[in-house]
Amino acid sequence: RGKIQEIEDQFDLVMIAEQFSQSLVLLKNALCWEIQDLTSFHLNGRETKIKTQLNETTRSLLKDYLKSDYVLYNHFLKIFQAKLEMMGNVKMTKEVSALENANAEISKTCAVEETANGKLKGDQRWYGTVKLVGYKVNNSTNEECLLMTMSGLKYIDRIRTKQLEKANLILDGDK
Question: Hey, is 134 helix, strand or coil?
């Protein structure tokens, strides 16, 4: 319980994966961002056809085995639900709709096509199993589109390269 309180003290918002759009809206408001700052594609997800449903026996066994995780999750779910109530259903629905519209617009602009990871090439291919879903960008002249569909590790490599370049410019300027 002490660790949960420590986490609560450290984080103003714990996002809930099952309510990702609502989580993004709360994040937007906390950081004073615009809807366009939140646009995204569902990257690195599993193909729908391979998802399996757990039966109640397995679910019960997991709930017992992962008791600490359930306590943590349920604690932050209650806080999350309280934040949703404070915002109000009408306002949240309006903002989630605006986010969905912005995502549809960027999807149209980028001309993305949901594609099995095994068929993706280059920076858009994710590491690991081919049973993941990514996006093929048909508008490859738009850098934002390419960045939004780039695999996580490739994106991190890109950021590190840019940071190193900036650091070298600063260090060279000090000579």
Answer: strand
Q: For residue range 34-79, list pLDDT tens digits in order.
A: 999 999 887 766 666 666 788 999 999 999 999 999 999 999 999 9
> What letter represents residue 16's amino acid?
I
Main-chain dihedrals φ then ψ at residue 114, nearest 5 degrees: -60, 130
DSSP 41: -
Helices then strands, counting H and E runs in the chain, come out as 7, 3
Q: 17: number of CA atoms within 13 Å, CB side?
A: 3
Could you tell me the CA-to-CA distances from 104 to 56, 95, 109, 112 in Å, in that order?
36, 14, 9, 10
Dist. CA 105–CA 59, nearest whole Å: 38
Alpha-carbon distance of 99 to 97, in angstroms, equals 5
The single residue listed with the structure tokens 């149209």 is 108
Region 140-165: mean pLDDT is: 88
For the question of whether the overall pTM of this predicted structure is more than 0.90, the answer is no
Between helix 89-110 and helix 20-31 the angle, nearest 10°, is 100
In 56-145, beta strands by DSSP E: 112-116, 132-137
Identify which of 113, 136, 116 has the alpha carbon closest to the alpha carbon of residue 124.
136
Q: Are 21 and 34 in contact (CB under 8 A)?
A: no
Please state whether beta strands 45-46 and 112-116 pair in parallel, antiparallel, or not at all (unpaired): unpaired
